[in-house]
Amino acid sequence: MEGKIKSKDMKVNCLLQAALGSLPVQEFSLNQDTQKIFRSASRLSKCLLELKMLGAGFQSLLNSVLLHKCIQARLWENSKHVARQLDKIGTLLPKSLLE
């Protein structure tokens, strides 16, 4: 994205990309917004997945499954930070494993 965030959809996109890309957001209100966005995104991606299971092509079903998995894990599927998905790991250990 270029320039300033001017609309709500740009804000949602920016916060989703930051969270899925493992970028830390320091501001409390933005963290709360991110939590709300992920709750909605999880429901929407599950709905999309169920719709695609009813009769879409294989590629669109596969893309829906990948999107839902990424939103559930809060991480892109090709991320270097896969260790973040483990329970009780925190944020420092995955970063140190990358180095």
TrEMBL record:
In terms of domain of life, where is this protein from? Eukaryota
Q: Name one GO biological process term.
A: meiotic cell cycle
Keywords for this protein: ATP-binding, Helicase, Hydrolase, Nucleotide-binding
MF (Gene Ontology): 3'-5' DNA helicase activity; hydrolase activity
What positions does the domain SEC63 occupy?
3-93
Which InterPro entries does the UniProt entry name for this protein?
Answer: Meiotic_Crossover_Helicase, Sec63-dom
Q: Has UniProt tagged this entry with the keyword ATP-binding?
A: yes
Q: Please list every transmembrane segment annotated in the UniProt record, as residue ranges.
A: none
Note the Pfam families from the entry.
Sec63
User: What's the protein name?
Assistant: Probable ATP-dependent DNA helicase HFM1
Q: Which organism is it from?
A: Geodia barretti (Barrett's horny sponge)
